[in-house]
Design a protein that fits this description.
Its main location: nucleus. The protein is α+β, with helices and mostly antiparallel strands. The protein is built from ten helices and 28 strands. A four-stranded antiparallel beta sheet has the order 1-28-27-26, with no helix packed on it. A four-stranded antiparallel beta sheet has the order 2-3-4-5, with no helix packed on it. The chain has a four-stranded antiparallel beta sheet with strand order 6-7-8-9, with no helix packed on it. Helix 4 packs antiparallel against helix 6.
Amino acid sequence: MATYKPLVVQAIPKLGERITQDTLYWRGYKTPVQIKEFGAVNKIDFSPVPPYNYAVTASSRIHIYGRYSQEPIKTFSRFKDAAYCATYRDDGNLLVAGTEEGSIHLFDISGRAPLRQFDGHTKPVHVVGFLSDKYRIFSGGDDYSSNLWDIPSATEIVSYSEHTDYVRCGCASKVNADVFITGSYDHTVKLFDARMKSSVMTIEHGQPVESVLLFPSGGLLVSAGGRYVKVWDVLKGGQLLVSLKNHHKTVTCLCLSSSGQRLLSGSLDRHVKIYSTTSYKVVHSFNYATSILSLALSPEDETIVVGMTNGVINVKHRKPEERKEKSQKKRQPAYRTYVKGRTYMPKQEDFCVGKPAKRVLRKYDKLLKSFQSSKALDAVLEPPIRLYTPEVTVAVMQELHRRGTLRSALAGRDEKQINLLLTFVARRVIEPRFTPVLVIVADMITDIYQPVVGQSAIVDRQFLRLQEAIGKEIDYQEELLEVLGMMDTLFAAFTKKRAADLERNKSNGLTETIETNMSN
């Protein structure tokens, strides 16, 4: 008696995800570590000097975390109310933050109490930062003003009141120590020069501006607001270079990679998009649990830290590079490994005893083996198989048809089972890989259950869906045939024209040759 051969399911190649160098690079992070803060995380900033600690501003506290620590190594908590936008100075020694009551606090990283307090804003200060000369601070508040402060004397240098709504973001130029930029909910981005009494450039973003970023060269400016990320050429007077609309909700934060070749944007749609700064196309994307408010990337892209609305910080560390194997000699395997190993070739005098591999049959294979056609069909109509591996369901139907038992397997079913069968056939019959088999199945179901049409509203509805699906597919096929006919006509006309041109060129060449011979 021949042994039963398991059912062979035809493998259909799938279009896999395109793997690029960016995909491999940005996937090279470990499983994220999550840290719970006291409130929504409005700012994350990495220290520019080793060991690259990062400051997290949430609620009324600023926590300093080591790059690999899950507990804060230092806390600044002397705020009456919420703190905002804690930012490091370029040397990593000072930290500045805005407050809900309108003051600005300057901290020494080695201390706890504020070194300086700057008072001048009348409403909350949401954006603060250092100018590149390290001795001045810029700020923007909900009182619509943008101010410049002198650190040694703790005095206000100049105040600009050009915005007409809350100032919620800003950045300073690394090239020019007098230039800083602010973005406002009045839809504008303004560029200020500390030597001038008013702004030197105004850019209309078109949406409330949530974040701005200046490239290290100082020539390109990126603004984020609404669903848009826009790139502007500052050297050409604020000319718009590209407008990106890859997020589904408001973009809240921007960040540049250490090389400056990748731009990162975080959004309330729970995604971080990574763009190439040459083509401005999305090269990778991260998905998070909740809406994103802040984002920071450590030097050399070793760590990505994301702050979310629920107060959770998501920290991803890059996996260490695999070290090359040491050149030491490996321990040689024992003699018995050579004798009993899989690669051992038996000699002529050896007596070989084979052990047949035990095959584990799937449920539908066991039922097919015992000729239980109806139960085998029921087994492959279970949700896990029907929904995720429909090719298995169709393969069993094809095998039953080959055996001549498909009709009996489809017959004798109740309303619920008929509804399930018709739903599967109506959904999958239009797929080219399943069409030949499912057309036969649909024909048999219609033939078997035609006498009961009109007795069940559910079954009638499924028959109508099947008819509609097949009708649409026929219409599509007819349209495709029309398009093919048009293309054949065009190709034929093009071929005739090309042949006529070649004949003309040949005849012209022959005429010229005859004339040349006659003249000689």
